[in-house]
Amino acid sequence: MSSIAVPDHESAAVTLEGKRSLLKLARRMMDNFCAGVSASSAREWSKLDGLTGSIGADVRVMVRKSVDEPGVPPGVVLSAATSVWIPVTSERLFNFLRNEGLRAEWDILSNGGPMQQMIRIAKGQMDGNSVSLLRATPTSTNQNSMLILQETCTDESGAMVVYAPVDIPAMQLVMGGGDSTYVALLPSGFAILPDGPSMGGKTTGSLLTVAFQILVNSQPTAKLTAESVDTVNNLIACTIKKIMVALHCDV
């Protein structure tokens, strides 16, 4: 790891061209996330059975094949999404999900420890609007060859936390101001909507949408297997349960 030139602290020196390239990549990540969770007449959601009883929500899945798409890994991509009501304010939920120090409480990509914020680029005046580059704490079995690109945004209408694993050589290129067009991204994340203004001073809840995009096979001609569906099914249920436990909600 010592031979890899990755910044070791927040606000590390990145050229103006590097920041522009990073912001451009983050914009594509957000666009891909929104497109990946949007249905159409050609790509429709299918309902997954078996989760309603465990998290009180339906999980929907959608499959697409990626072939020669710049910036998207080739193969079979499975999208899964669900929405669930959580009895905490949208501000508290947003601040929890964007906190890299608490990420291990819900994210398997964290290696079970807090993530380090390598770079943070503010977008606008609000504290919650930024693009950041995160790195998981290395373990003996994982020497941390991966980073997390994340964008967070919030306003009065709601908030989003969107992220994607990216490899270190690709981010070296981007931080040096290189072209980010061909950096492969498969973003996942959260959309948070407040459930309305508080009534009589009572705390309101939030509607949390969780969406994952996973490459289940690197061959575009491969068939989707039941094991792949079970894997993403379990991942989305486990993530929601962990969030609820961390925020002291009844599961």
UniProtKB/TrEMBL annotation:
HD-Zip IV C-terminal domain location: 15-249
InterPro entries hit by this protein: HD-Zip_IV, HD-Zip_IV_C
SUPFAM superfamilies found in the cross-reference section: Bet v1-like (SSF55961)
Any matching Pfam family: PDF2_C
Protein name, entry field: HD-Zip IV C-terminal domain-containing protein
